[in-house]
Amino acid sequence: MDMIRLDKFLSSQLGCSRTDAKKLLREKRITVNGVVAVKGDLLLDPDTSAVCKDGQRIQYEKFVYIIQNKPAGVVSASSAPGDVTVIDILPASMKRKDLFPAGRLDRDTTGLMLITDDGAFAHEILSPAHHVEKTYLVTLERKVTLSEASRIEAGLVTDEENYKPAVLRPVDTAAEKPRYEIVLTEGRYHQIKRMFAFFGNRVCALHRTKIGGLALPESLAPGESRKLTPGEVQQIKLL
Ligand code: URA
Known about the structure:
Blueprint: E1 4-5, H1 6-14, H2 18-26, E2 30-32, E3 35-36, E4 43-44, E5 51-53, E6 56-57, E7 65-70, E8 100-101, E9 110-116, H3 119-126, E10 134-140, H4 146-154, E11 167-172, E12 179-184, H5 191-198, E13 203-211, E14 214-215, E15 225-227, H6 230-236
Parallel strand pairs: 9-13
Antiparallel strand pairs: 1-4, 2-3, 2-5, 5-6, 7-9, 7-15, 8-9, 10-12, 10-13, 11-12, 13-14
Bound molecules: uracil.
Uracil binds at residues 105-106, 109, 190-193, 206.
């Protein structure tokens, strides 16, 4: 395992600045393997060293993976002055440095949002080359015609874009605003809204229900977040 500096360990695991980490050290609140540590440049093996703050073990997690039920009105960015972001609404206990949303949802789109500090993982689930499916429930202004559905399923070609084939399944087409499930393997800017706008239709509501094999748990209320288990992280990569 790579050795890391104690101040880096503290700032990454506690989500604080290096300055705050140094303050904790000065205040003698940190021990490493039972010995009070005061120097930020102490090198340690994060997997085997017992680092405690105020006597409480800080479990080392190289990366974290958080699932959030994104509410409407929140922006999927790491920081957006003047706006509330998906990072801002995380509970303090989940905050770490370098967290970012893995993929974008529009401000008015709700549902499954992944937040991580693992760049390679984010690339793997977002890159169209990896074909990780993103499933959405879309509420439309009017029903989709058979010919529109087959163009979407074949890979919609517009003047601006060549979209990859998508799966479209009716959920409730008898409703005044019909609902469909749509499954994409790419995530272009305003993709679903633009695909339906191409046919003169309008997206009234959009909610992401699934990424790969991981569904948004019903127990997670809008605005709530929780850490994923390693098994759930694996599920994302399954179709
Ligand atoms: N497509 C959209 O148009 N918006 C989203 O937020 C996600 C997919």
